[in-house]
Design brief:
This protein is of the alpha/beta class and about 260 residues long. It has one domain: Alpha/Beta hydrolase fold, catalytic domain (Rossmann fold). About 35% of the residues lie in helices and about 20% in strands. The chain has an 8-stranded mixed β-sheet with strand order 1-2-4-3-5-6-9-10, sandwiched between helices. Strands 7-8 form a two-stranded parallel sheet. The longest helix is centred in the middle third of the chain and has 17 residues. It is globular. The two termini are about 30 Å apart. The mean pLDDT is about 95.
Length: about 260
């Protein structure tokens, strides 16, 4: 684990193009590393950087006052370590919200790949879906299973174990008054919704049964911006990387192929 200005990150590969991974709230980089590093394997084609965001993971002791400061921390890290390098940002949920904010910086960003993006901080203003279970082969009487079954479409033992490893455990480890206050304050964002600026290619992957952020708000953004494309995945909730990881990785592969080198 490396760090810049106390912000911790892990990096793999050595390619000229840098892939920047921003995880969900309040998790850590493990959920993204587990899904994407098996795809890259020993490939050196891209440099992959997984950042633990302020207040979370190994950056748990790094605090940010608001959204703008969090974005600025990420910008500084990338400017110092990867000056003038081509960047592609991959975000999950809250990480998408931050990734879009990076577009206003001077960073050389050539694409955004957004998984179950949180585009509206205020939970009461989101258009969310009703969760439907596609497959149930496992049940358990526990708080962990209750959390799992309330957000996932595929309820199997294997996916439950994965959920505990990359979502439930990090959420418990990251519990703090700081994060609770940050979330209650709509993630310390001063506006009602986020603005997509510029014309870089943006691919959104959304779950048809996402009961946390939904897919309709993302679809609206795609209709309003020519550079934004959306894929709505059937039989997937908010945790698409657990419900349908193969669909996410396949779409990611196609997205990378269509990003021109700079």
């Amino acid at each position: 684990m490396s760090e810049y200005d106390q912000l911790k990150f892990q990096s793999f590969g050595s390619g000229r193009c840098v892939l920047v991974f921003l995880h969900g709230f309040p998790l850590n980089s493990k959920s993204l590393i587990n899904n994407f590093e098996p795809y890259f394997g020993e490939s050196q084609q891209f440099t992959r950087v997984y950042i633990d965001l302020p207040g979370m993971g190994k950056s748990r002791n790094v605090l940010s006052d608001d959204y703008d400061q969090t974005v600025e921390m990420i910008v500084k890290l990338l400017q110092v370590l990867f000056s003038n390098r081509q960047l592609i940002v991959i975000g999950n949920s809250y990480g998408c919200y931050l990734g879009i904010g990076l577009l206003k910086s001077s960073l050389n960003i050539s694409g955004l790949f957004l998984i179950a993006p949180m585009l509206i901080p205020d939970k009461d203003r989101r258009n969310v879906e009703h969760l439907e279970h596609a497959l149930v082969t496992f049940r358990e009487d526990s708080d962990e299973y209750q959390a799992f079954s309330s957000t996932n479409c595929f309820l199997t033992k294997e996916k439950f174990n994965l959920f505990k490893d990359v979502i439930d455990t990090p959420m418990r480890e990251n519990q703090s008054r700081y994060l609770a206050r940050f979330e209650k304050n709509s993630y310390a964002f001063v506006k009602n919704n986020i603005e997509i600026t510029g014309d870089v290619p943006i691919c959104i992957i959304a779950g048809l049964y996402d009961n946390i952020v939904g897919y309709k708000d993302s679809k609206k953004y795609a209709q309003q911006h020519e550079n934004v494309n959306i894929k709505v995945i059937n039989n997937a909730g908010h945790n698409i990387l657990i419900d349908r990881p193969e669909c996410v990785v396949s779409s990611f592969r196609d997205f990378l192929r269509n990003i021109p080198s700079r």
